[in-house]
Design brief:
By secondary structure, the chain is an alpha+beta fold. Helix content is about 35%, strand content about 15%. Strand 1 and strand 2 (about 230-235) form a beta hairpin. Helix 7 runs parallel beside helix 8. The longest helix has about 50 residues, at about 55-105.
């Protein structure tokens, strides 16, 4: 019995374990053939103790198992490799089959998507339009935007004439008018505007390389004892440049081109309110290349500096003051960037 145990122990070496020296053992684990042989030896030993049979029979059987395991270890390793290769191939083929089945999904008619659109929140319109082509086509229709307006309209909201229910039925510019109206009476959108500070926390860089379309100054007479002056700069963002001419974007359906008409698309308004009137040169038609908002010299207000040039600035280069027209507004009471959908953004009632 002791001889049998010693033979069984000799079959397991230190080099067979995972934490052995990799310089001595190439594989970091016990081979499957060796593990199976050890398992069979243990089972035979357990059977020997239970039956108290002759030791020679068990020894001969264990020796045969050990010899067979030692001879067939390479064959089992090769079989394991081939088995793993076959299993990976089966997984890949099954994966391709699932992808092929998923590509041929069900296509629902436009009426179904139009019905589902009645339950979409205004902030989820973009997600809804990205589901499929039919969902996007529904979001382009005049019926979609008209129902969205009627579903969220509030009678006591103070709206401009163009955004009133009597005028909202016009096809031209319907989408832009509905979006502007939502910022008047839809609570989630109104709360976004109320949270915006009067002075931006960081200097806005998205306005750089924008072209100045209009410039005007207003005098504000309010509850304050001193007058305020409002300097308004209307800018047009430069379209992004894409490789291979892919900058055209997705084209709206031809029958709904008027619904998506918006002359103020990609436009925004920079409104700077100052405590004094400041003479400013004419900068219409020029490009804004620098905008800084700093603390004024009196340490109580802010100072805004704008630099305009004749052409857009190349990315990575710093603008030079001697090559453009500079406007310095100081002291500044507030600085606001108004997108085209903002309630304070001026727009024509004809659009």
């Amino acid at each position: 019995m002791e001889t049998l145990c010693n033979d069984a122990v000799r079959c397991v070496t230190v080099a067979d374990y995972a934490n052995s020296d990799p310089a001595i053992v190439k594989s970091g684990r016990v081979k499957k053939a060796v593990a199976n042989a050890i398992e069979k030896e243990v089972k035979l030993l357990c059977g020997l103790e239970a039956s108290h049979g002759p030791v020679q029979e068990v020894l001969s059987s264990t020796a045969g198992v050990g010899g067979q395991a030692q001879e067939s270890s390479d064959e089992l390793d090769a079989e394991d490799c081939t088995g793993e290769l076959k299993a990976s191939r089966k997984k890949k083929s099954k994966r391709h089959k699932v992808n092929a089945d998923s590509e041929g999904g069900a296509e629902y008619p436009v009426d179904v998507w139009l019905l589902l659109a009645s339950y979409i929140r205004p902030e989820d319109i973009c997600k809804f339009a990205l589901i499929c082509k039919n969902a996007w086509a529904v979001s382009c229709t005049a019926a979609f935007w008209s129902r969205l307006y009627k579903r969220h309209y509030i009678s006591d909201a103070h709206l401009p004439v163009r955004l009133q229910p009597d005028s909202i039925g016009k096809m031209r510019g319907l989408r832009a008018c509905v979006i502007r109206s939502l910022y008047h009476f839809y609570e989630p959108f109104c709360s976004r505007l109320s949270k915006s500070p009067s002075i931006p926390e960081s200097t806005p860089t998205a306005v750089l390389n924008s072209k100045c379309l209009l410039f005007w100054v207003n005098k504000i007479v309010g509850n304050r004892p001193e007058l305020l002056w409002e300097f308004n700069f209307k800018f047009l963002k430069q379209p992004p440049k894409f490789k291979n001419g892919c900058g055209n974007g997705l084209q709206f359906p031809r029958q709904y081109q008027e619904v998506h008409t918006n002359p103020d698309h990609d436009c925004f308004l920079l409104r700077v309110t100052t405590l004094n009137f400041i003479f400013t040169p004419v900068v219409m038609g020029m490009t804004l290349t620098l905008l800084t908002v700093n603390v004024s010299t009196d340490m109580r207000h802010h100072r805004v500096r704008l630099l305009f040039q004749d052409s857009p600035m190349v990315k990575g280069r710093r603008p030079r003051n001697e090559q453009g027209v500079q406007i310095v507004l100081d002291p500044v009471h507030s600085v606001r960037l108004l997108d085209w959908w903002h309630p304070q953004y001026p727009f024509s009632n004809r659009t």
